[in-house]
Design brief:
Radius of gyration: 55 Å
Helix content: 10-25%
Distance between the termini: 136 Å
Oligomer: single chain
Largest sheet: 8 strands, mixed
Shape: rod-shaped
């Protein structure tokens, strides 16, 4: 038999003994009152008269108001009121119905609970008896009975509901966990309170909870949270939140750590750099627990910080990510070759290789420039000139680029010549009739072009730019063909 059960048994036995003695006392009191009235009646020389024959009628006690039901948060103070009229010599008692415990009788406190007291208003016409309960606890909830000790006891009830904010039971709730990648994990959370609290889960970082490969949710309801085939994506802090409508809500933060061997990503496995330049090599690391990171050369000799080398590891987000960097200053011939970034933790080891080779120094060329050699305005004074160009007098600009290639900038007219040459061929024209005239016209064109160039101070074929008209032969040909076509039309 456990100690708590023995205490409960002894407590109930004491209460029953007390109730028995109170009933005996009340019964004896009633008998004494009745006997005293009988003796007085006999002493007066006759039998006691029925109460209906007396000049003063005695009314039975009655309750004048109901007992209010009360809902109270734990820790507050309350009082229950029981109002009675015509109480006379009768007594009022308070009892806890569920506990079968007498709390007070008249002005006396019977219970040993120091938080309970009783008062009454003597000046009230309807005398009111107050039951006070200080610092209400959850065990105080239930029905409270106010009773008058008439021959047939009169009673009425009031209900006290005690609400208790939720409280997470750490003994029954999961703590921080460390698992290996690929395992299944179940988190549990248990809370007490009145009413019974409800439990929901969410991630502390606001991300969705990954339940499995095909399901992600913002929140999960229930006392347990099951994570299948856990991965590094599950890593983080989870909140178990308990609510029952009674403020404040409470939560517990449970951290889930997922252990896995290091993984290395290399953005550039082959890096070229000229001599005497500085270079930074980079590796991306994922590992949990946090890995030991370092760099080596081909002979597996660890690289330490010096005037030549500087190493650093930059933490990432989430915490299992990091970036390794190796800074090499003033690259020499001996610095070319392979470099390894190595990551180790209790779950394993991994490395990645970067090859550094010599590249050509960069050549910085200025942007291409153009120089205007001459700008001339040519005025055509005869019909032949107008036929050749088909336009009014225009500006002709000759430029030379950085490579010494000279060209004529009047390109719009070339486009027009091409369109006319391709689109306006006369139908049924016999080219054989005018072979001689065409050859004569071509000769005339070349002679005219030479004269026109000389007239404006420009040699049509300068000795130091023999490649000029080779590159502009297309333009010359178009002009020649246009002249031939115009000549044949006329």
């Amino acid at each position: 038999m456990s100690t708590s059960w023995k205490n409960q048994f002894m407590w109930k036995a004491a209460n029953m003994w007390l109730i028995y003695h109170i009933i005996v006392v009340l019964s004896l009191t009633t008998m004494i009152v009745l006997q005293s009235a009988h003796v007085k009646g006999v002493a007066a020389g006759g039998l006691p008269m029925p109460s209906s024959a007396n000049n003063v009628e005695t009314e039975d006690p009655e309750f004048t108001d109901v007992i209010d039901n009360i809902t109270v948060p734990a820790g507050r103070n309350i009082k229950l009121a029981c109002s009675v009229k015509n109480l006379g010599s009768y007594k009022v008692a308070w009892m806890h119905f569920e506990q079968s415990a007498i709390l007070t009788v008249h002005n006396h406190v019977i219970t040993r609970n120091p938080r309970i007291s009783v008062t009454h208003d003597k000046h009230d016409k309807h005398r009111t008896w107050f039951l006070h309960i200080n610092n209400v606890q959850e065990e105080d909830r239930g029905r409270y009975m106010c009773q008058i000790n008439t021959v047939t006891a009169k009673t009425q009830y009031g209900f006290v509901k005690v609400v208790v904010p939720p409280n997470i039971d750490d003994a029954l709730t999961s703590s921080d966990v460390i698992v290996r990648e690929g395992d299944n994990v179940t988190l549990r959370c248990k809370a007490k309170g009145s009413p019974e609290p409800s439990i929901r889960w969410k991630r502390d970082d606001g991300l969705k909870i990954v339940l499995n490969k095909s399901m992600e949710v913002t929140e999960v309801d229930g006392e347990s949270l099951e994570l299948e085939r856990i991965s590094r994506l599950h890593m983080g802090a989870y909140l178990c939140i308990a609510t029952n409508g009674v403020p404040p809500s409470v939560s517990k933060r449970i951290k889930v750590s997922v252990d896995f061997s290091p993984m290395v990503w290399i953005p550039h496995q082959l890096v070229g750099i000229p001599m005497y330049f500085n270079i930074t090599l980079e590796c991306f690391i994922e590992a949990n627990p946090t890995s030991l990171n370092y760099w080596t050369r081909e002979n597996d000799q660890m690289i330490t910080d010096s005037l030549k080398y500087k190493t650093e590891t930059i933490p990432g987000n989430p915490s299992y990510k990091a970036t390794m960097r190796l800074h090499i200053t003033n690259v020499q011939r001996s610095d070319y070759g392979s470099y390894k970034c190595v990551a180790k933790n209790p779950r394993g080891e991994m490395d990645g290789t970067i090859k550094l080779y010599m590249s050509s120094p960069p050549t910085t060329l200025p942007p291409p420039t153009t120089t205007t050699l001459a700008t001339t305005t040519t005025t055509y004074s005869n019909e032949l000139d107008m036929h050749i160009n088909g336009i009014e007098p225009t500006n002709s600009v000759i430029v030379i680029d950085k490579l010494g290639i000279k060209y004529q900038s009047n390109l719009n007219e070339i486009g027009k010549s091409e369109q006319k040459l391709m689109g306006d061929t006369p139908k049924g024209y016999d080219w054989s009739k005018d072979k001689q005239s065409s050859a004569t016209s071509l000769t005339s064109l070349l002679v005219w072009h030479s004269k026109a160039g000389s007239r404006h101070g420009l040699s049509p074929w300068p000795h130091h730019h023999h490649h000029l008209y080779g590159s502009c032969g297309g333009m010359t040909l178009l002009l020649m063909l246009r002249f031939m076509w115009s000549h044949m039309e006329t």
